[in-house]
Amino acid sequence: MANRIVIGTQWGDEGKAKIVDFLTQDSDMVIRFQGGANAGHTVIVNGSKFIFHLIPAGIMHPGKVCIIGNGVVLDPAQLIQEIDELKAKGIEVKGRLFISRRANLVMPYHKSLDQLRETKLAGGKIGTTGRGIGPAYIDKVARCAIRLGDLLSEKELTERVTVNLEEKNELIVKIYGGTPFDPKTVIQEYLEYGKRLADFAADTSGMLNRAIRENKNLLFEGAQGTILDVDHGTYPFVTSSNTVSAAACTGSGVGPTAIDEVIGVVKAYTTRVGNGPFPTELDEVLGAKVREMGGEYGATTGRPRRCGWFDMVVLKNAIGLNGLSSVAVTKLD
């Protein structure tokens, strides 16, 4: 048995999906445990490019089980789009993809609030993807989030959306000058999502712990990177979740003693998307050259990545924060 975590050691975009794709061959299950559709994991198979925002990259391997854990904030529309795209290319996910009933959902008002807040910040922008990740995590901590399991009960969903929108519409209209949401429209939209996703909802923590007892090999796929961790990153220019290796346990529902290895993925140079400190950033001319040579554009937003020299201080920090047992270096060529 080898239960491994693959984690980014920089500001994301280290090439984690390539390492996950390679290690999936020796794994039985691949698990996403944090973040949401702000992630963009690119895998190229037989010349075809696949970009996954929610589904684990291991889905490309026949017979492998993929899990979206409770720590992920789930955008149902994005997930269904990925499922449909895979099916159109001959890859069936039913019976292989399972989603925690406890996974919190990204709602339309989360995306609206994300974008409105970013606009209002003007010169102090964080550089968010605008996909509603931060506001979804806010609701999770505020204990008013809507979970995947709520989509399976019209009564539960109706009550929660109605109550939430009383507050969210006040914020959207009176604070940010945005357009309010009609509760009935949102409820109906998400009930339809519930019908599509009902077969995927599961007690994923129970599934994973059974797999551990059966000596299965689990592979935990991290998103973003260590220096974007909400606690340990370049705050406030960070993502809204814990991206370090410890989050694999809380975000999937397994104990820390189940983990055997932590593999840190590091790029041979450094990149960053969005605002925030970047000590080794290259000047505009050389940075642009590296960007073009390395194809450094965001898989999620398409934004050009800032490029810089390799930063050993950042890697040393990541080794300690994640308890790395090994390092995989990408883009040496």
Folded structure, characterized:
It contains 10 helices and 14 strands. A hairpin with a 2-residue loop joins strand 3 and strand 4. The chain has helices spanning 16-24, 76-88, 108-121, 133-141, 154-175, 183-197, 204-213, 247-250, 284-294, 312-322, and strands at 4-8, 29-32, 41-45, 48-52, 65-68, 73-74, 97-100, 104-105, 201-202, 218-221, 261-267, 270-272, 306-308, 326-330. Helix 3 (108-121) crosses helix 4 and helix 3 (108-121) runs parallel beside helix 5. It has an 8-stranded parallel beta sheet with strand order 9-7-5-2-10-1-11-14, with helices on both faces. With 333 residues, it is α/β, with parallel strands linked by helices. 45% of the residues are buried. The chain has 2 domains: 4-100 and 203-330, Adenylosuccinate Synthetase, subunit A, domain 1 (Adenylosuccinate Synthetase, Chain A, domain 1); 104-199, Adenylosuccinate Synthetase, subunit A, domain 2 (Orthogonal Bundle), CATH 1.10.300.10.
Largest pleated sheet: 8 strands, parallel
Mind telling me the C-alpha Rg? 19 Å
Helix content: 25-40%
Task: List SSEs in N-to-C order.
Answer: EHEEEEEHEEHHHHEHEHEEHEHE
* Name of the level-1 CATH class of the largest domain: Alpha Beta
> What percent strand?
15-25%
Taking pLDDT < 50 over at least 5 consecutive residues as the criterion, the unreliable ranges are none
Which terms summarize this structure?
single chain; 333 residues; alpha/beta; Adenylosuccinate Synthetase, Chain A, domain 1; Adenylosuccinate Synthetase, subunit A, domain 2; eight-stranded parallel beta sheet; two-stranded antiparallel sheet
